[in-house]
Each structure stands twice: as C-alpha cells, then as structure tokens.
Amino acid sequence: MPNVLLVEDQHLVRQGLKMIIEQDPRLKVAAEAENGEEAVRQFEKHLIDITLMDIRMPVLSGLEAIRRIRSRRPDAKILVLTTFNDDEYALKALELGACGYLLKDAEPRKLIEAIHSALRGGMILHDTVAAKVMPRLLTRPKAETRTQDLPLTPRERTIVRLVGEGLSNREISDELGLSVGTVKNHISQILQKLELRDRTQLAIYALKNDLA
Asked: Would you report the helix, strand and coil content of the chain in percent, each value rounded to 5?
C-alpha cells in the first residue's frame, strides 16, 4: 500500500484531506507535516511513496521543500496541492521536479485519480493551471538542436512524445505493446542521453522541442 506524506499548514484542511485520501483503501497517510521543514524531516523518517505538498507555508515554503527532498531523492514523487492558481508557482514546481500541480478545489475523486496517476509515473496539471502553463512552456525559447538531430531512436522519440502528452509508463506500454519494464528502461536511457533529471523535465523537454 503506497505511503502518502501530507504537507499542509492548516490543521482542519489537512485532516479533511487525510479523510478523503484514506477513503481509498489503496492509500495510507503515513506522515503529516505543517511546514516545509517538517516535511523534509518526515520524508527522511518514513518510507514515502508520494508527497502532497502545499506551496505557501510558514518556516519553509513548499517549493524549497521540493528542492531539498528532490536533491536527496531525485526519484521522489511530489504532487503540489495548493489554492494558488499561479503559473509562476506551477512552472517553478515543475522545474524543481514536482510531478504535478493541483488546486484544492479539485473534486475528491480527481484528487485520488491524480495520486494514483502520479504513482504510475504520470504528470498531472489542474485544467486551469495547464491552460496558463502550457502556452508559456511552448513559447519559451526552443533548443537549437533540430528534432531530426536529437540523439534518439524513432522508438525513443515516440516515448518522449507520449511522456510529453502525460501518459504513465503503463499507458505507454499499452500504447506501444511493450512491457512496463521495457518502457522504464527506455526512459532511463533517454534521460541519460538528454542529460535530464527526471520524467517531469522530459515532459517539459518534449513540449519545448515540438515532440509532443
């Protein structure tokens, strides 16, 4: 059963979120934190599979907590859950390695679906956030390298495209008729070739280079 770290500075909100999450018998809130500094400590103390992280908190912000956690565990899955529909926050969180950005007005069902999608390797953006973030990603300066000059095989380019479209490893394996393990190996090789840190950076790369 996946262990969830719930990071939220408002006690009542945190308890409400915990109740929603634990209505799903497949999930367990293993630890809680009310600020970013405590989140880093709890992450190191427990075996955490996914973290739900608020952005603006006392002592240490969610963004800085993401940076610290990801510097220790580059494969850590962190899903931002906040009230702030702000494209700057969203872009920074994604650049730091967050696997998604959700708003607290999301329906409980959507929150649970987002957690499971993130656990499978997907990237999740709230619709209103995506509407602001995606155009900014697409209008950022593109890499000088042309698509045909990228050091990727046709199969790898296809996988990059699917990652950029937000598909999880399982969905990519179904789409291409490959095992999940083979997809994971391909993505690891792609990250090495492109000198990227994780699949979130890969998804952003795909958008910036017209591969998605």
From this structure: 55, 10, 35
